[in-house]
Amino acid sequence: MKEFYKQLLDNNKEWVEKSLAKDPNYFADLAKGQTPPVLWIGCSDSRVPANEIIGAKPGEVFVHRNIANMVVHSDMNMLSVLDYAVNVLKVKHVIVCGHYGCGGVKAAMGNMSVGIIDNWIRHIKDEYRLHDKYLNAIEDETERFNAFVEINAKEQVYNLAKTSIVQGAWKNGQDLMLHGWVYGLNSGFVTDLNVNISSNSELDEVYQLNNL
C-alpha cells in the first residue's frame, strides 16, 4: 500500500519534469487563469477521462462528475458548477457524456440494493418508468442496457436546458449549446446522440421560463 502511494507522488514529479521540458512556462501560464470553452458533465467511472477522450489540454475543459452523469435539479453541487461555468467562465458548450457499461444505469435496471446510492439511482429508475414500453420491447439485454444508457444521457441534456441557469444565459443572448454523448469503453469513440439544444424553444412550454 505504501509503495503504491509513493508511486503516485513519483508519477507526479515525472509528469512535472516532462511538462516543463516541453514548455518551461507550462505551469506559470496555467496559473494565470482559465477560459475553458467546454463544461463536461460525466460519470465518476475511472475509465472515462474527460480531457483525454477529446484530446484537450489542462485549462480547456471544466469538469463535473457524478454517478451516471446525472443532472438533478436539487443537486447544489452540480448547480454550483453549472452556474460558475456558464455565468463566470462563459463556456460555449456543455456536454453530458454517458458511457456504455455504466454501473449506475445497470443498477437502476435491477432491484438489488447497493447502499446509500439507491437514493441517487432512483432518479434513473424514474427515467426507465417514462420509457418502459420502448425499453421492455428490446429483447436483447445488452441492447436494452445500451439503449437506456443513451436515454439517460439525453434526459440529462433536457434537464440542463430546464435549469434557470441555462435559460437565463439564453435570454441574455449568450452563446451556449448543450450536447449529449455516449462513450464506448471498448472502442474509445464517442457517439453523438444528436441532442443539441441552444434555446428553450426546444422544450415543452411548461418548462420555458420567460420572466428571468
Descriptive keywords:
9 helices, 2 domains, five-stranded mixed beta sheet, 5 strands, Beta-carbonic Anhydrase, Chain A, globular, 212 residues, alpha/beta
The CATH topology of the largest domain comes to Beta-carbonic Anhydrase, Chain A
Strand tally: 5
Q: Number of DSSP helices?
A: 9
CATH class type of the largest domain? Alpha Beta
In spatial order, strands of the major sheet run 2-1-3-4-5
Question: Gist?
Answer:
The chain has nine helices and five strands. With 212 residues, it is α/β, with parallel strands linked by helices.
Structure description:
By secondary structure, the protein is of the alpha/beta class. The chain folds into two domains: 1-32, no CATH class; 34-207, Carbonic anhydrase (Beta-carbonic Anhydrase, Chain A). It is 46% helix and 16% strand. It has nine helices and five strands. A five-stranded mixed β-sheet has the order 2-1-3-4-5. It is globular, with a radius of gyration of 19 Å. The mean pLDDT is 96.
Topology, element by element:
Layout: H1 2-22, H2 26-30, E1 38-43, H3 50-53, E2 61-66, H4 76-88, E3 93-99, H5 103-108, H6 117-130, H7 132-136, H8 141-161, H9 164-171, E4 177-183, E5 190-197
Parallel strand pairs: 1-2, 1-3, 3-4
Antiparallel strand pairs: 4-5
Cofactor: Zn(2+)
Keywords: Lyase, Metal-binding, Zinc
Pfam family, one: Pro_CA
